[in-house]
Known about the structure:
By secondary structure, the chain is mainly alpha-helical. Helix content is 74%, strand content 0%.
Amino acid sequence: MNEWRLENILxxxxxxxIFLIPFLVLIVSKSLPFxxxxxxxFFFMIVVEAILGAYIALLILDSQKYAPRKNIxxxxxxxxxxxxxxxxxxxxxxxxxxxxxxxxxxxxxLYFHLFIFFIISSSVLNKKxxxxxxxxxxFVSFLVSGYASLEELGILKTSNSGRxxxxxxxxxxxxxxLFIHLFLAFFYFFKFNNRRVRxxxxxxxxxxxxxxxxxxxxSVFLGMVGAFMVAFFVxxxxxxxxxxxxFWGVLTVLIILIPFLLIIYRNSDLVRxxxxxxxxxxxxxSENTAKSRIIIWGIALKSFxxxxxxxxxxxxFIIPYAANYNSKLYGNELWFDRTHNTxxxxxxxxxxxxxxxxxxxxxxxxxxxxxxxxxxxWSENQIIVFWAFMAGYFIQSFFVFDTLVSYFLxxxxxxxxxxxxxxxxxxxxxxxxxxxxxxKQMFVVQYVLIAFVFTAIIILGIVVNGKAVNQGxxxxxxLSAIRSNTEIDLLKTAVTGFKNALTIDSFGxxxxxxxxxxxxxxxxxxxxxxxLENESFVLLLNMAxxxxxxxxxxxxxxxxxxxxxxxxxxIRLMLNRNQESFDAxxxxxxxAFRFKNYSPxxxxxxxxxxxxxxxxxxxxxxTYIVENFGDSPIILNDAIKIYVMSGYHSDVWKTIYKNxxxxxxxxxxxxxxxxxxxxxxxxxxxxxxxGNNALKLTEDKQFRKEIxxxxxxxxxxxxxxxKAKFYMQEMENTxx
Length: 736
């Protein structure tokens, strides 16, 4: 094979791989955990590794032709990657920072692949190739939008409460993905003057914007509004004629007013009867989702202050989140591993140095755009569209975070900017070596080196990705087998399945351990004593304990696996009430109490104390909760339940009155439940008191009959025969 032919094959292989990448968004791998995430990421990494082998081969053949272009974007991206590398290496858990987990797959490994994709695409693709790449992506986005439309029409059923998510698994990811393609449609709309071609791009924009609206994602909607506002405002500034200035000025004002008009007219029939408009009209910083985001931002700032230089490392926000937990979040999700704000995320992950590196990339983009503008490569409108896109993306990034479906497009856009900004520059590549230095007799060695490098990279990629893929498949196979088995075979199937999955060691082990723990906890909660004393269940419990002990050692700053381990120890204590089991639980509880702000943990502790019969300690825990975290009605409500279960009824009433200041009062069902618990505790006075309060709250005859019967039993058990007869009479006199 001659040199030219080999070069041509390698070049086509690289371009073919790059043109395949936009199709990753169509992948939904149900044989892997988190099917909307893992399949896409593994596909991307495998393709990038394959084209990396071919690219290195091209560099060996002709460094002068294929070496990376000298560009401010390459310099800024390299500096940023080096900063992130240092932040992850010196972070709190470098292993997670590098590999991440199945749910996110957003560690340093992904960033390296994105960086490689950026370098290769910016070095190999030309203008025509970029046009093909982005139009392949537009075509795929059309397919994605079509799938979402079928969801909206009910032809494809989903479980996402009416909000479409297509092949993304989340409406936010779909909205962010479509946002970029809406920008691309407008960008190419202004590239051509042909009306038919423009109509094509406009039709794509209208269709995908309608799907974008179906997602109901308010943060990306605000980004879209911001993008149009910037576009119209810049057009107004650049307009020479007065009429044009007025026209663009009016459009700028109107686009600014859209969110406010939706809020003002949120109760109108037009807005209320349209699910998308109705959701967009609920933009309100006092709304629960917005309030929780603001609280998380506060936790992020505290976390940044603790490690301000290089941060905690990627994927580790869950650690300072627990340490700096704000009790006002109680009642939301128990764990947040993202700040839901890109700026704050980089402050937490990589500190002030990391944010500086991220900002450097943005500055480099602006400089590349300015270079393109000065060379008149794009039209004025195309430049404006790009500025508008950057503004909109910046706005939405204050509320959401990116995933691969938007990351690969952003990396591609950076590569495209390198190609466009360096157009016409002949001396624009790094010279790795001179081709003239290689003598003819060295070409054989050159081909051997190419074959070795290409093969080595492919094999390494298969081995590294293959382990995680196989482990994920074994997990799903195990969970599927468990769901399809009867109770008799359930435990044996679980033991075999989880044991097989754990024979492979990859970053997926964390997810296997958490799934194993979840299965054991669920089984212990809903199965009978015979089931729990089964030999296979004991084996499964011990396996879970052993694996979670490994997890806590590997991730010893993280409260989440520690709580899981404690709960497993509790089950073992329930089955084996010996000193060793008791000491293990107590030891880990003491270890976990260093997370003083994580209020949900105190409820775990109180419930544990009730389970072992230490009601006094449970009530003390509830008192600590009320005194230190009692600014939340949800927390007070759960503290009341702890007091009731521990039998400290005077504290129940104190907390009920305290919660009344928040406008909260137990329901009829709550009082009746409290009464039944008090009766089991032989506290008939309190049982009667709860029953009478339930009676005051309802006129429902069915409820009243139930309450009268309860009060009859309470008074009879306490020896008050007259009151017992009275309540029985009242029950009989209550006609349904």
